[in-house]
Amino acid sequence: MVEVKETAPITTRFGAASxxxxxxxxxxxxxxxxxxxxxxxxxGVETARSLARGGAxxxxxxxxxxxxxxxxxxxxxxxxxxxxxxxxxxxxxxASVTGFADAWQGPLHLLVNNAGVMATPLxxxxxxxxxxFAVNHLGHHxxxxxxxxxxxxxxxxxxxxxxVALSSAAHMFAPVDLDDVDFRQRAYDPMVAYxxxxxxxxxxxxxxxxxxxxxxxxxxAVNPGGIRTGLQRHFDAELAEQMEGYAEGGTFRYKTPQQGxxxxxxxxxxxxxxxxxxxxLDDGRxxxxxxxxxxxxxxxxxxxxxxxxxxxxxRLWVLSDDLVA
Length: 325
What we know:
This protein is an alpha/beta fold. The protein has an eight-stranded mixed sheet with strand order 3-2-1-4-5-6-9-10, sandwiched between helices. A two-stranded parallel sheet has the order 7-8.
């Protein structure tokens, strides 16, 4: 039986229609050093743009340096005085993640684990890890661990540091299976794999906060909502039609990239989440917890209990440490 402490969800003044720029409008982020993974496309671009607009120094951690430099130039042309750096990062590569973390110097105040893949055909890393679990969860787990000292230093400098992990409503369709994270025992399903990886993302936020809160570091997971980006490039016709049906039926509404990045920025800068972690945010506020057997199409803005289970989070953390060692 999963035990999740029931408290009133944390609310803010932001909602589904809010934009990332609106969230940062009242914040002076000068002196904040931030890393945004996957900042060369989609939500990552808008997350980096709004952080830069608020005055933060932003590192764009990207697979393609060329694409990152292009985005950096676009943001610099749009935001006066933007302080941007582009650094290579391939979350599927242990060497790349380790190299990024080892090369980091000085404090870090904000880590946004934004990069991700969705519904990919079956693919494995050189170590044999299933691709979506490896990129969406394991790579970010290793990155955050490698940057822990920098985050702790940032927390000491500014009174707190934050990690924001991008999850999805898809977590509601599939819990993490610790006995078969690589789909060796059951037939591979791209959306089940995606859902598992996004449940793992929420559990990461639970685990990181429990381990690092004494260091002044909190981690929260966010659901950005439905946004048309390159993330859906692996959809087949049937899945694309299904998603459009959900949108037309009102299960969710598509957002602009600026609206999609808003909840990320709430977790990153809003005072309501400065000292508390292990939450799952949706539409600018903490989501309500729903039972594991709840129909996701009936409660699309909830969070399943399995994603908040502290015991499961602890066991996933130990497994993840072993897999990225």
